[in-house]
Design goal:
alpha+beta; 18 strands; transmembrane; transmembrane helix
Length: 593
């Protein structure tokens, strides 16, 4: 069944999907019967797995309001919030219905460039774990029922005229997908929503589109027996919908070689799956920068897949890069043991530098140079006429009007002319004549060449404890570089040259092949003594190239304001490595018991 157009003007940004018009709205109703079977011993659904308004959008942890600098804890918290809130977004939509819905990947064309699947009930093992973990956060039980939750979501989204129960909960299923797809020179969002009632879905989608104030040419959909397929774009959505259905019928994404290979690698029980065609990313870079995409393709090409799941102690994100060439950052099977032997610091890092680091660095520099190097220098030396004092004063006055939105059309033309001259030539008092904005790649290559030559095959480690007043306790800091040859003194000299010959802090020692620093109050014990770290080590890649560990329980103790609402977090761990020539990795977010 196809919907009728609603000829209302679209007030939003034509380059963005209309608010609330796609993506399964949060929340869900839970029928009293039937209840799904759960294996003996599995946690039962707590009464009320709810999320406060706004939790459906992954966002970084807000900065501290105390005036302290934003140290490593905030960066880590931002990463964690993406992983955690992805799961929160899942429980917002959760409801116990035995019919999961069709595989969304079967509804999308094989030429889709990116695909995200949300499966709210992948198994009788995953769902109870998800509910149990999220119930540890106080904010997830603030609502008396899911109707209040849906109402709050709709109110915050700004959509009026949509009834949560009648227009959404009456038909929304459990398994949903979103893809980006290129058609006829435009990029469209294609959405597949599992449906349990086709008639209710027809009415609900019509109400949602009408409330969003968009036309069929921007938001087109069709309702099938078990799902809704929608296409959203700036224009041509109706034609794109027809084309997407036709292509998916002949060559669906689910059966494409690239996607099926990547998806088969992940376990079936995933709450969230994200697949990306990196070749399409290089095409996007070419469109947005105007440069050839060869540099991006040389840096990386192939497919990437991520999977989010729940385990007994928290959440796990697993990924693999299915590259067309060997993954450059190879690992070593001894890095995890090295990491485990480090002091049991609040934050710790370990990395293996591959022996071909000079080739990797050269590739990265080539990528950087193509986009921002030689061509940027050539443009920067081509200067115009600097602004006079009077013109600069005029420029500042027009700039204020431009950003206030009070500038006239004629004055805007004048402002843009002055703005172009200012940024290309400066002012007579401070001209940009013959300035070069691009880096001196010859010097960069020389310095990095010396540095990477010494570090090839080395193992680097470090760690420290959190300290509220200084972010990191300097007395707990420990650093190490174990080189393949006895040239630690030479490495120390290179580092000294980078710091403009300012000596390294007292305590750095160069002894043969080892350059190290050990504070006066390093942590007691080793990371391997921590049960959380030992559990993580059992699930990390066999050959690791980089490992990170953060004790979030300790971070919460030292920075309670920055971790407000995240008290249940216990630890974060990440390991990246390689398997069969592909880059792969695991992130684990541990929660307190």
């Amino acid at each position: 069944m196809s919907s009728d157009a609603t000829p209302q003007p679209y007030p939003g940004d034509p380059n963005q999907p209309p608010p609330g018009a796609y993506g399964p709205p949060p929340g869900a109703y839970q029928p009293q019967q039937p209840q799904p079977y759960v294996e003996a011993g599995a946690p039962q659904q707590p009464p009320g797995a709810y999320v406060p308004p706004g939790a459906y959008t992954p966002v970084p942890v807000p900065p501290s309001q105390t005036g302290r600098g934003r140290g490593p804890k905030v960066a880590v918290a931002a990463i964690l919030s993406v992983v955690l809130l992805a799961a929160v977004g899942a429980v917002v939509l959760f409801k116990f219905v035995l019919n999961q819905g069709p595989d969304p990947a079967e509804s999308f064309p094989a030429t889709a460039s990116m695909y995200v699947e949300l499966n709210l009930d992948p198994s009788f093992d995953q769902t109870p774990k998800l509910i149990e973990h999220l119930q540890k956060f106080d904010e997830l039980s603030d609502y008396d029922d899911t109707g209040e939750l849906i109402d709050a979501f709709i109110e915050e989204s700004g959509i009026e005229g949509v009834d949560a129960d009648e227009d959404i909960n009456s038909w929304l299923g459990l398994r949903h997908g979103l893809a980006t797809w290129e058609h006829d020179g435009q990029t469209y969002a294609v959405l597949s929503l599992a449906s349990t009632d086709a008639d209710a879905a027809e009415d609900g989608m019509a109400q949602i589109r009408g409330a969003a104030g968009v036309e069929e040419d921007q938001f087109a959909y069709t309702v099938e027996d078990d799902h809704v397929l929608a296409v959203i774009g700036e224009t041509g959505a109706s034609d794109a919908l027809t084309a997407a259905q036709t292509e998916a019928a002949d060559e669906p994404l689910a059966t494409s070689d690239d996607y099926s290979e990547a998806r088969a690698w992940l376990d079936d029980d995933q709450l969230l799956v994200n697949w990306i065609d990196m070749d399409a990313v290089s095409d996007l870079a070419e469109m947005t920068t105007g440069a050839e995409s060869d540099a991006v393709e040389d840096l990386y090409s192939g497919q990437v897949i991520y999977g989010l799941s729940a385990f007994d102690q928290g959440f796990q994100l697993t990924y693999r890069l299915f590259g067309d060439t060997e993954h450059p950052w190879t690992g070593t099977d001894g890095l995890m043991d090295t990491m485990g032997a480090l002091p049991a610091s609040d934050v710790a890092l370990a990395a293996y530098v591959p022996e071909n680091i000079d080739e990797i660095t050269s590739s990265w520099l080539g990528f950087f140079e193509e986009f921002y190097g030689v061509e940027a220098e050539a443009e920067a030396t081509s200067v115009g006429v600097p602004l006079t004092d009077a013109e600069y004063t005029e420029y500042l006055e027009l700039q204020t009007q431009y950003y206030d939105g009070t500038i006239t059309a004629d004055d805007e033309t004048r402002y843009l002319e002055l703005d172009d001259r200012y940024w290309s030539a400066g002012t007579e008092d401070e001209p940009f004549v013959e300035e070069s904005y691009g880096p001196d790649f010859g010097e960069i290559e020389s310095v990095l060449g010396d540095f990477t030559g010494l570090l090839a095959g080395a193992t680097l480690t470090g760690g420290a404890n959190f300290m509220a007043d200084e972010e990191i306790d300097p007395d707990s800091l420990h650093l190490g570089a174990l080189l393949t040859e006895d040239n630690a003194d030479e490495l120390k000299d290179v580092i000294d040259s980078w710091t403009e010959d300012k000596p390294l802090p007292e305590g750095f020692e160069a002894d043969g092949s080892e350059l190290s620093y050990t504070g006066s109050a390093i942590a007691d014990g080793t990371l391997a003594d921590d049960e959380r770290f030992s559990d993580f080590a059992d699930h990390a890649p066999g050959e690791c190239s980089a490992i990170a560990w953060v004790d979030l329980a300790r971070a919460g103790e030292e920075f309670p304001e920055d971790f407000a609402g995240l008290e249940p977090l216990s630890a974060f761990a990440w390991a990246h490595g390689a398997v069969d020539g592909d880059g792969t990795g695991v992130m684990r977010l541990y929660l307190k018991d």
